[in-house]
Amino acid sequence: MSEIEHLHNNFFCCHRSYIVNLESIIDSKKDIVIFKNNISLLLTDKSTKKIRKSLKNIVFTSH
Hints:
The chain has helices spanning about 5, 45-55; strands spanning about 10-15, 20, 25-30, 30-35, 40. The protein has about 60 residues and is of the alpha+beta class. It has one domain: CATH 2.40.50.1020. The strands form two sheets. It has a three-stranded antiparallel β-sheet, with no helix packed on it. Strands 1-2 form a two-stranded antiparallel ribbon. A hairpin with a 2-residue loop joins strand 3 (about 25-30) and strand 4.
């Protein structure tokens, strides 16, 4: 787990090279998350499970 994740609960390390702000996610589908700027990110199976658990407390805003 990265140091940034420990600093704030809204940050999530979904890959060795990617740390995402959960508040920036507007939608999630099977193994993809979509951000406010319409960029999408493909997740691994392991990350998908972890991020879905984290997202349960985040309310999605409309596109």
